[in-house]
Every structure is written in C-alpha cells, then in structure tokens.
Amino acid sequence: MTKPKPLVxxxxxxxxxPIVSSEQELLICVDAQDQSVxxxxxxxxxxxxxxxxxxxxxxxxxxxxxxxxQQRAEGKRLWPAxxxxxxxxxxxWGEDLDAAANRRLTxxxxxxxxxxxxYKFEYAAHYKNLGSEHELCSVFVGSxxxxxxxxxxxxxxxxxxxxxxxxxxxxxxxxxxxxxxxxEWQRLQQDFSQHLPATAT
Length: 201
Description:
By secondary structure, this protein is of the alpha+beta class. The chain has a single domain, classed as Nucleoside Triphosphate Pyrophosphohydrolase (Alpha-Beta Complex), CATH 3.90.79.10. It is about 20% helix and about 35% strand. It has a four-stranded antiparallel beta sheet with strand order 1-10-5-6. A four-stranded mixed beta sheet has the order 7-4-9-8, with helices on both faces. Strand 8 and strand 9 form a beta hairpin. The radius of gyration is 16 Å and the shape is globular.
C-alpha cells in the first residue's frame, strides 16, 4: 500500500471554511504531571524543541469497525499533508479538555459523538527545521456513522480505513503518517483493545 487513497477530497475550499485556529491562540503549558504552569501561544509552544503543552487525540470508528483518518491540510506548519487520526488539537487557555475535544470534532469534521477518555502520554517529535510537538496528550475514542463535513483549512482529505490495513500501512510506510498516530495506534491495540471494535485488535 502506498499513501491512503482519499474517499473524499476538496468538499469545501479554504475560502468557504471557517478559520478555527491561530498561531497566536493561547495554549495551556503543563508539567509532566499535567499541572498547568502558565500559557503560551501555539507558535511559541511549537518553536524549537517545543514547550510541553496539553493536547488531545480522537479516534472515531464507524459501525463497521473502520477508523476515520484525515489528511492534514497543506498549510499546516507541522506535518502538512500527513495522514493522521480522526482529530487532534489543543485545549485553549482556560478551556476544559472535554469541551475542547468536542469543539474541535465539530469544527474540523462537522461531527458530534460521545467521547471516552482512555489515557494520556507525553511525547516529543521534531519536524524538519520548522518546529516540534511536545505534548501531554489525552486520547479519546468515539463512534459515528455520520458523513464528515470537513474544514478545508484543517483537512485536505479523509477516508474510513480498516484497522488491519492501517496497521500494515504504518509498518510498511510510516513516513506518510504523523508520529503521534503511530504511537497512539500501537498503544491502543496493546493496552486498550477492549475499548476498540473487534476488527481493530
């Protein structure tokens, strides 16, 4: 398998999609125990080796057990055009984590779904000379059969993928996928299989 073939691309042009994020929005800086230590702009959090900040990742499955993947927009500073999990972002300064996850799911994909928190973990990843992610990331799963209505400022394409196909793709061609997806998918299968569709384990 090469790059995942999108099932839908270009539903909306960036000009028709709302702007839902900014390099100047304030994020929540934390310590390793997820205690807030202040705020910084998204740009500052991603500069250099990165400043540890609170984040979340969402995995949405349909009733057939397939996972919703998104391809990040070309205009993203970090990992543009890479394939990633259904939705990932950051709570803003003063914003509750659950509220932020639900907000972003609607803003990026036009979806609303009950989300179940599974775990959090710290990771760091560097992208070329453009910056880094250093996140304490909470991972959620949810389910929906609704048709995504994507925000083209955030997403260039999307598709549903069978879990076994994703596992093989991450093994064969990891260069097409975000580093956090690779880490999270492995952990979900190893430690949280009871919370995933049977096809995902």
